[in-house]
Amino acid sequence: MDFSYNILMSYENRTEYDFSTVEPILDNYILGSYILLAFTSFPCYINVYQKNKERDKRSAVFPIIDHFFKTVIASYFFVVVGFCFYLIYKKLIDDRSGAIETIFLLSIFIALAIIAILCEVNQILLSILSTQRFILYFLPGSEKCIDFSEKTMKKIIWSLYALLSFEEAIILYGAFFNKVQTALKIYVILMPIIYFSLDAPFDQIVSCCKLTDAAMIPTLSQVSYLGCNRRNLQTMLVSLKPKNILKTLFCACFPSSKATSDELYQMESTADPAAVQIPG
Predict the structure, then answer these.
(1) Would you state the pLDDT for residue 279?
(2) pLDDT tens digits for 237-264?
(3) Distances (CA, A) of 148 to 43, 113, 156, 174
């Protein structure tokens, strides 16, 4: 089952939700290093994306790249807001029972469900993007077959969101109306899963994998975009020069101007000439 459902079920089996188990994880060095990478790559990602946006619009894969950018922003927003609510609940609210706790746990469930849906949609879009990239590189004459219009791509994306939201609604139905068996039957019919023989309970493994995906995909999307080609990498390196680094780190949310002509000339002169041709 979904990890958001497991969190809700764990709450029903205890009188008070204990957040002390989260503290050892927060003290983990690996998690700290990952958080550092996530929040240092974020402004660089925004900066490079804004500089490449007009050029990328001519690409067949731009609708997917643009959607990744929006979901990365949304993921960071939910993480920051969720962390703030967690601090408010832990430090400022003494009443841990009644309506306040119910609202808080319901908010956690909704936030986790949204993050899970974003993660799964991005995984499907990554498969589509990799297929498009393969065709572009190895079958360049077939570009028209994969050049979806912006309207068509939006329909595909919203259809994915509708399908996965329906899946989450089934889980929510089973959680709040104690119709677990009915929800499981619907879930198995719609989303068949192959069960393997594992040491740990299957639902815990699935929850752990989904939580890991939700945490890793935004950062991996940023790092892969920054390093996917030489031009993006060089644009990032230019933005990290001493004279540009403060603007990159603290002004990432504002529209950035294009790189100077000298910087662009330097990047293009070292890149593959075929990669920097300007369409006539």
Answers:
(1) 38
(2) 887 887 777 777 766 555 554 444 344 4
(3) 29, 29, 10, 38
270 burial type by CB count under 10 A (0-12 exposed, 13-18 middle, 19+ buried): exposed
**Residue range 207-228, pLDDT digits in tens:** 677 777 777 888 888 888 888 7
pTM: 0.63
Q: How far is Cα 157 from Cα 117, in angstroms, rounded to an integer?
A: 12
Closest alpha carbon to 112 in 84, 75, 87: 75
Instruction: State the pLDDT at residue 199.
Output: 57
d(CA 168, CA 182): 14
Contacts of 179 (CB under 8 A, 6+ apart): 173
The answer to whether 232 and 48 have CB atoms below 8 angstroms apart is yes
Q: Any idea which residue has 């975009």 for tokens? A: 225
Q: What is the largest CA-CA distance in the chain?
A: 68
Of all residues in the chain, what percent are helix, strand and coil, respectively (each to 5)?
80, 0, 20
Question: What is the rounded distance in angstroms from the CA atom of residue 157 to the CA atom of residue 225?
Answer: 20
C-alpha span between 113 and 3 (Å, rounded): 9
Q: Please provide the size of the chain in residues.
A: 280
